[in-house]
Design brief:
Elements (H helix, E strand, L loop, with lengths): L1 H21 L3 H13 L10 E2 L6 H6 L17 E3 L4 H13 L3 E5 L16 E5 L20 E2 L10 H6 L7 H4 L6 E7 L5 E2 L1 H4 L1 H6 L10 E7 L2 E2 L5 E8 L4 H11 L7 E11 L4 E11 L3 H11 L7
Parallel strand pairs: 2-4, 3-4
Antiparallel strand pairs: 1-2, 5-9, 6-7, 6-8, 10-12, 11-12
Helix pairs in contact: 2-4
Length: about 300
């Protein structure tokens, strides 16, 4: 009898543990009911609603975390994650967070090394915008004299459109075309009251503010309308790395005097990095460039303006 009694205990404990893990949470249920009531039934918001008991919760939470210090066991985690696939999901999340007195953070699909998008000191939820990534191109309004277009955006592969545009948006074509926001001529934002506003209805002050002042300071931006720019069919890139021992300081000094005077089709930026070798430590300067043209034309410009870099 004693043996059978102890044999039953592990099975009973496993059953209780399974029940506790699968038991519905009244707070989660109440929040999901609020979301479902206030959002479009198709697509259902329940399909993009994640709680800590959901098998995809950890993956969704950690997908865009670039700073490993925020992946520790002591990092505060959200009560829910909503990854909207429809603008009504955004509206519902804003209103339901207000009803439940819950702070929410906004992730826009790119890096956030400071953790401002996914960490809070108070109970919070996350609105993760990674599902809203559709791109529509209006080919009818292309320039008649050019069949190749681009957009002046980005110098880092892990940046997200939301943070990049709303922060101004510098990139490798900015010497010729300026910042990304110089070519944003409309946007859609969901404000704190759940209203969907475009560039006209939000007013010129707010439209100005979200193009450089940080979108999350004013609402949740769900769409940007941008104007493409013409680019040549052939562009050229190069990267040159030099350590201190290879004359990096002299090249950096020279770069400061020529970089703002060379042709606007040529963009050269410098990244300063430490070099840790087994037997010594040093510093290197990495010159990274994009040229809107072919190599022959680039070579002529470099030989004229910056021959010290040694492009040949």
């Amino acid at each position: 009898m004693g043996t059978s009694r102890f044999a039953i205990l592990p099975a009973l404990l496993a059953l209780v543990l399974h029940f506790l893990l699968t038991m519905s949470d009244p707070v989660h249920d109440s929040f999901l009911q609020c979301l479902s009531h206030l959002s479009s039934p198709s697509p259902p918001i329940s399909d993009v609603f994640y709680t800590p008991t959901n098998s995809s919760y950890t993956y969704v939470l950690q997908s865009y975390i670039q700073n490993l210090r925020f992946m520790s066991s002591t990092t505060p985690t959200p009560q829910f994650i909503v990854a909207p696939s429809h603008v009504s999901h955004v509206q519902a999340t804003i209103i339901c967070c207000k009803i439940h007195v819950l702070q929410f953070r906004i992730c826009s699909g790119g890096h956030d090394y400071d953790g401002l998008s996914y960490v809070s000191d108070v109970p919070f939820a996350i609105l993760d915008m990674f599902n809203l990534r559709a791109v529509s191109v209006d080919t009818e309004n292309e320039w008649a004299w050019s069949n190749v277009h681009g957009f002046p955006v980005g110098a880092c592969p892990t940046v997200g459109v939301g943070g990049h545009f709303s922060g101004g948006g510098y990139g490798n074509m900015m010497r010729k075309y300026g910042l990304s926001v110089d070519h944003v001529f409309d946007a859609q934002i969901v404000d704190a009251n759940g209203r969907v506003l475009d560039g006209e209805s939000m007013g010129e002050d707010l439209f100005w503010a979200i193009r450089g002042g940080g979108g999350a300071s004013f609402g949740v931006i769900v769409a940007w309308k941008i104007r493409l720019v013409p680019v040549p069919e052939t562009v050229t890139v190069f990267r040159v790395e030099k350590t201190l021992e290879q004359g990096a300081l002299d090249l950096l000094h020279r770069w400061q005097y020529v970089v703002d005077k060379i042709h606007e089709d040529l963009f050269i930026r410098v990244v300063i990095l430490p070099v840790n070798r087994k037997d010594y430590k040093t510093i290197k300067a990495k010159f990274v460039s994009l040229f809107l043209g072919n190599f022959e034309r680039l070579l002529a410009l470099m030989n004229e303006s910056f021959p010290e870099l040694g492009i040949d």
